[in-house]
Amino acid sequence: MSNDKDMPSSGVSPSVLAAAEEFVRKELAASDASHDYAHIQRVRANARNLAQLEGLSPEATALVDLAALLHDVRDWKYSGSDGATAEAVQGFLTAHDVDSDTIDRVLDIISRVGFKEELGAGGAGGGAPGLSLEAAIVQDADRLDAIGAIGIARCFTFGGAKHRVLYDPAVPPRDGLSKEQYMSGGAQSTTINHFYEKLLKLKGLMKTAAGAQIAEQRHVFMEQYLQQFKDEWEGRK
Q1: From which residue to which does the signal peptide run (predicted)?
Q2: 17: number of CA atoms within 13 Å, CB side?
Q3: Residue 137 domain-assigned?
């Protein structure tokens, strides 16, 4: 139960944040290194940095902090349920007497983080109507951890955990994926294809100016890596 006198108006107290850290650490204890507690720590650090750069208030930053901590609890890629995250997060926050308005705001932020939420009939780039600045910051923070050097490492870690083929030149990346196609995976889900189907699209989907600036260099690094990978694959280097 949280009775902190220093609770911000967002409804996020220091004790709730501490409890969330412990909750998430236990929830992700068995996760592979692409979605473990270290990933959460990096996203949280990214979110705090973006919040500062975007001039977010301390109250809103506390909300961002909590949502960044909780965003990957029982992720659908591991739980098999698209609603498992919201159910678990709501249960945790309710058990810690977080007010209903704050719970709704955290759940809204978390529901907007995933790449799949921007996939429609025409694929990525459908926009994000009604996205709050807090949600934009957490979304960008998570996406920054999916690109660049760490993004490359996470991509191959996840591919290995899912027993995906590393690369098959005969299997082209899928263009214009729908949400359903993305979630179902399929025979064309090679690890290298994932760069073209998702990771290289993230730079253009950043929502904050600060996030877009950071993403630029990380995007270039991935492009350079992919060129080196293909040169080595074909014996050119």
Answers
A1: none
A2: 20
A3: yes
Q: Please, what is the angle between helix 100-111 and helix 133-144, to 10°?
A: 40
Residue 7 lies in a domain: no
Predicted confidence (pLDDT) at residue 13 exceeds the cutoff of 60:
yes
Q: Which residue has the higher pLDDT, 174 or 109?
A: 109
User: Is residue 5 a part of any domain in this protein?
Assistant: no
| Enclosing domain of residue 36 | 14-231
Total number of domains constituting the chain: 1
CB atoms near residue 111 (< 10 Å): 15
- Determine the Cα angle at 188 with ends 156 and 192, to 5°: 30
DSSP type of residue 120: B
Asked if pLDDT for residue 80 goes beyond 90, the answer is no
Residue 116: CATH number of its domain: 1.10.3210.50
Model confidence pLDDT, tens digit, residues 35-76: 999 999 999 999 999 999 999 999 999 999 999 999 999 998
If pLDDT is split at 50, 70 and 90, which confidence band does 4 have?
A: very low
The number of CA neighbours under 13 Å toward the Cβ of 137 is 27
Domain-embedded: residue 4 = no
pTM to 2 decimal places:
0.90
Q: How long, in residues, is the chain?
A: 237
